[in-house]
């Protein structure tokens, strides 16, 4: 595919030119974009000039952190994992405003990278897997445009970081990044993964975040995703996930009354995430996911399906 070849070539040139003889601290989330970006950086600059730093904020999907670690290391990239769940939970404690959550998480990420860069001298650049839609939606477009959501990885870097930015995908869309990823030999298993937002489950737990709620949501989400894969529906949608609502309702289990949280399932079709349609999943499938979640996840007794397009809704709930 000539298009992908050109994009790979241009991206490698951009990285070489931008970084020159510097060193890159690459922020990785385990998502498609930053994984493909770090692979390209290593290819452009050599492994000894790139260090991937993965901040585990405790808001990832179930077993995600170890999966990500294994996959990135298998690319031959230098990887540092910082386990920061407790620090992030603490910073987010008592916070329920969506933009506030995003800002806290963005700031904490920067602090982590700053601390790491201070302790390990010589980094000249901070690398990020930012995509074009992230740039647009965080900046707003045109005069008087409003910010829709502060994407965690955009917004410029505070002066104090003393590093320049290198964002090889700033002008690319996700399907282009996937093409590039395949071109540089990243496995389909990684490249075809659904997008996952940097702030992670923080924007899928509405209201205040607690460790208990994270666990409840991880369990529900895993049931949904596993079933999608099992029924060959995973690739039929752009993205699918569970959301934990701050709403308790009454139910009945056996002879007992329950009063527990509500979980929303969201599945959307899209080509770049800027607009989205509702995933047309069979009702029978949805009912079976709901049934398994309510039976197996302690804390959830009701499941609803989100049938809103983007616009007017966004894909994530916060
Ligand atoms: P929304 O919710 O704005 O999401 O319709 C559009 C796409 O972007 C993802 N998303 C993010 N990705 N950092 C990211 O890297 C973020 O802060 C972020 N917020 C949303 C979302 O999952 C969807 O694919």
Structure write-up:
- It catalyses: XMP + L-glutamine + ATP + H2O = GMP + L-glutamate + AMP + diphosphate + 2 H(+).
- Homodimer.
- One of its GO terms (cellular component) is cytosol.
- It is an enzyme of class 6 (ligase).
- The protein is built from ten helices and nine strands.
- By secondary structure, the chain is an alpha/beta fold.
- It folds into two domains: 190 residues, HUPs (Rossmann fold, 3-Layer(aba) Sandwich); 102 residues, GMP Synthetase, Chain A, domain 3 (2-Layer Sandwich).
- Strands 3-2-1-4-5 form a five-stranded parallel beta sheet, with helices on both faces. Strands 6, 7, 8 and 9 form a four-stranded mixed beta sheet that branches.
- The longest helix has 22 residues.
- The two termini are 37 Å apart.
- The protein binds xanthosine-5'-monophosphate (XMP).
Give the topology, please.
Blueprint: H1 2-19, E1 24-28, H2 32-45, E2 50-56, H3 64-74, E3 78-83, H4 85-92, H5 98-119, E4 125-127, H6 132-139, E5 164-166, H7 174-183, H8 188-191, H9 211-230, E6 239-253, E7 256-269, E8 277-278, H10 283-296, E9 300-305
Parallel strand pairs: 1-2, 1-4, 2-3, 4-5, 7-9
Antiparallel strand pairs: 6-7, 7-8
Helix pairs in contact: 1-2, 1-7, 2-7, 9-10
The structure holds xanthosine-5'-monophosphate.
């Amino acid at each position: 595919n000539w298009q992908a070849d050109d994009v790979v070539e241009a991206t490698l040139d951009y990285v070489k030119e931008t970084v020159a003889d510097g060193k890159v601290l690459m922020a990785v989330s385990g998502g498609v974009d930053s994984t493909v970006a770090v692979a390209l950086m290593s290819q452009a600059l050599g492994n000894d000039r790139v260090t991937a730093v993965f901040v585990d904020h405790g808001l990832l999907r179930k077993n995600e952190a170890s999966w990500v670690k294994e996959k990135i290391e298998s690319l031959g990239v230098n990887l540092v994992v910082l386990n920061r769940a407790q620090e992030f939970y603490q910073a987010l404690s008592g916070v329920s405003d969506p933009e506030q959550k995003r800002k806290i998480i963005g700031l904490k990420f920067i602090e982590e990278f700053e601390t790491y860069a201070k302790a390990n001298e010589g980094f000249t650049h901070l690398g990020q897997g930012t995509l074009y839609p992230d740039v647009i939606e965080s900046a707003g477009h045109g005069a008087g445009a409003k910010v829709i959501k502060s994407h965690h990885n955009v917004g410029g870097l505070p002066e104090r970081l003393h590093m320049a930015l290198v964002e090889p995908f700033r002008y690319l869309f996700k399907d282009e990044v996937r093409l590039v990823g395949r071109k540089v030999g990243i496995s389909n298993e990684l490249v075809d993964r659904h997008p996952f937002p940097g702030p992670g489950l923080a924007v899928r737990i509405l209201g205040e975040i607690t460790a208990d709620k994270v666990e409840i949501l991880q369990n529900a989400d895993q049931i949904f995703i596993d079933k999608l894969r099992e029924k060959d529906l995973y690739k039929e949608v752009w993205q699918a996930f569970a959301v934990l609502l701050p709403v308790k309702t009454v139910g009945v289990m056996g002879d007992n009354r329950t009063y527990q949280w509500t979980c929303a399932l969201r599945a959307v079709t899209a080509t770049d995430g800027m607009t989205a349609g509702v995933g047309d999943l069979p009702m029978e499938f949805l009912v079976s996911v709901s049934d398994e979640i309510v039976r197996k996840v302690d804390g959830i007794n009701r499941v609803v399906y989100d049938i809103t397009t983007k616009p007017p809704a966004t894909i994530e709930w916060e």
